[in-house]
Each structure stands twice: as C-alpha cells, then as structure tokens.
Amino acid sequence: xxxxxxxxxxxxxxxxxxxxxxxxxxxxxxxxxxxxxxxxxxxxxxxxxxxxxxxxxxxxxxxxxxxxxxxxxxxxxxxxxxxxxxxxxxxxxxxxxxxxxxxxxxxxxxxxxxxxxxxxxxxxxxxxxxxxxxxxxxxxxxxxxxxxxxxxxxxxxxxxxxxxxxxxxxxxxxxxxxxxxxxxxxxxxxxxxxxxxxxxxxxxxxxxxxxxxxxxxxxxxxxxxxxxxxxxxxxxxxxxxxxxxxxxxxxxxxxxxxxxxxxxxxxxxxxxxxxxxxxxxxxxxxxxxxxxxxxxxxxxxxxxxxxxxxxxxxxxx
Length: 317
Fold this sequence. Notes:
By secondary structure, this protein is mainly α. Helices cover 65% and strands 4% of the residues.
C-alpha cells in the first residue's frame, strides 16, 4: 500500500514538472477570424502536397531482367503533414468545415489527428491512470512526457469526436485520396469494429461487417498501389505472400516485389527485395516467372498511366 502511494506521488510530481517545463505554442488570439484559421489549416496541409518531378527513368528493369518502357515520367507526391502546430482543438472547426465541404486533404488530416487522439486519455482521471501505468513499467521520464504532450494536444476533443476518425478517412479514401487509402489499410479490423461500436451486433452481423471492412481495405490498397503507393505495394505483397487474398498468392507477391524494385529509389529497400526475389525465383518454373513478368508489366502500365508516385521509403516495413 505504501509503495502504491509513493508511486502515485511520483506521478503527481511528474505531471506538475512536465506541465511546468513543457514549452507550448501560443494560443491563437480571440480576434483571429475563422477565415484566417481556415487559411492556416489549408496552407499547412497543402504545403507538403507539392508535386516534384520523380527521379525515375522512363525505362524500368525488374529483377527478372525485363525492361518496361513508359512514355511519361512519374510525378512524386508527398503526403500531407497531418499534425497541427497548435492543439487539435484550435484547428478542429476549420478542418471539419473544410472536410464537410469536400476537401479531401482536410478530411485526411482530421481523420489522422482523430485516430491519434483515439488512443489518448480524454480526462484527468484517465490521464492519471495512464501515467501511473507508465511509471510502473518505465524508468525514465520520456514516456511520461509523451503521454502528457499527447493529452495537451488532444485536450478538448470529445470521445465521440475521436471515435469518428474512420468517417473522415473513409470519405477521403472513397474519393481517391491515396494517403487516406494507405491509412485505412493500416487499421486492424478490431480497431474498426470497436471505434464504430459494432460490438453489440449479432455474431453473423459482426462477422459480415468485419469481412466487408477487410474487403474494403484490399480495394483501397489496390487503388493506392495503382497510383504509385509503395506502402500499398509492400502491404499487398505481404498479404499475397501469406496467401490471404486468393490463389497464386506467392506468384502475385513475386510480381508485386518486382514492381517495388522497379519503382523504389531507396538502396536498403532495393537490397531487401532483390534478396527476396533471388530466394523466391527457385520456387517457380520459367513459365511462372514469365507470367509474373506480365503481371508486373500490366501493373506498371497502370501506375504510369496514373502518373503518380508516393514513395516515402523510410516508413516502409
């Protein structure tokens, strides 16, 4: 009992110290107009969506030695920076208004922020519990500081609003936002079901809803991959290799890996997937390798027809 009081006392002191020492951004003055706030949100998000010419050549070579010609170079597109400079509450109304008006970048940015805040305590009691748990398992103040900073960033956004992260991501993804499609593909079915309060469904309804979500993830992954998302290509390759998406999974993964080799500039990624391909080649006949090469060419033709590339190799697993 005494030990628990000592730990709780440590947490209280830690919270006071973190709050005292943390450097927070100045609050937006009351006289700042909503129009200016909306401009700030929009400009910040779009600053990272500027298109720049890709360094990829018009001739790509796969691991099988096949060269695929394309008339146009790809345009590399950076994903929007979703984290706000100030607290989310200060940007929430502007982002929500833009998203409701059909702004896909705003919908993606708001969805990503709400997904982040979904895991963050939403009141002081929950915060104290999480800090106490962290203090019992970690022996440094970094974890406690991260928890406090996330709480400050998300403070004021209600639990019901946080639970709607999927609503905004789905809206953006259905209208062609590749970053939103990637984000939905990263969600676990369990998170999707919990956030949407589907636990009360009957068993049959629950299973069907979960399966429908998984099918939607694959559709979004396929669309993102066709628009040059290396994240989506990597995830599709993993799913096919695990043979969870139908027949010829290993051969499909082999073809997808060749596309990754043809599109990626990152040396580490190139080396990793070239090693995968060298090991896998012995498992296939010459006819199967030819079939995979045709798949790769069809996919690459679709990607070059769309003309975009979302690389971001540093975030690939």
